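Sequence in, structure out. Go.
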Amino acid sequence: MGYFSIFRRFLVTLSTLLAISLVLFIVVALAPGDPLSDFAGNPAITAQVRENIRKSLGLDQPLPIRYFKWLWAFIHGNLGYSFSSRVPVLDLIFQRLPATLATVGIAYLFSVAIAFPLGIFSAIHRQSWLDHIITFFCFLGISLPTFLTGLLLIFIFSIGLKWFPTLYNSSLEVKDLPSLLEQIRQSILPIAVLTLYQASSLLRYLRAAILEELPQDYLRTALAKGLSPNQAIKKHILKNALIPVLTLIALEIPAVFTGALVTEQIFGIPGIGALLIESINHGDTPVILGITFTYAILIVLFSWVADSLYRLLDPRINYD
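Output:
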């Protein structure tokens, strides 16, 4: 890839992020709701005090000025302060990140580990009874929304069998083996919900990509030259089939850092997804912008990473 192509892609990426930041800021700023609505029911806070608070938060300034001040601070690593707690947004994100990584991150690793062998097996043994079983569970995992799956698992395994706790205990500290086992126990259900959904989606994409490669002429040529089916899969089929699948994997990785909104709400996990929902309910603009724009940056970044990895899988791909 030439230097001009890299520079051109950098400009496209930069302009994309700027456009996203502008749209996000305008949507959040013009959304209904008042960040100071929590003070409305407090008789000790007069209208003058509320106006002074509004000025101290910079909410009295014109929208363009607020946007450029926020963007300039974001570029310098300052995501601002939460309107509700007056805590730096970056500190809030780092406080919630471990809970998100412990559930969403582990679930995604399990999803990849499950989807790849089952997807390859299902494609190669198409129309077999095992393929039908795998396909059935895939459609089940994709069709059922996570809130329904979560409620079903809670009803069966928490309320009915009482194997797992109903809600996530955020105050639990892992200090010894019993507390570690309790942490694992309360994480099983949310991880299972996310793993079922993510693995089903990834498995279907991988199976479809491999099925597209099986009738190709290059595979018949490779088998005619003496390659075993396993060697043909490793050296030829997977390289070509992984190109579309790699995009899906790359675009799903940012969700590992930004949390699962629905699942974290159902199980009471104090992750970044739950923080975003709380911030939307309170009109906490800095937190909303900090999380959503960070997610947008990660999406663009990992899309760029996926594009760069394409050439490793297929050297014929040239962006020039």
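Check: The chain has a mean pLDDT of 80. The two ends are 7 Å apart (CA to CA).
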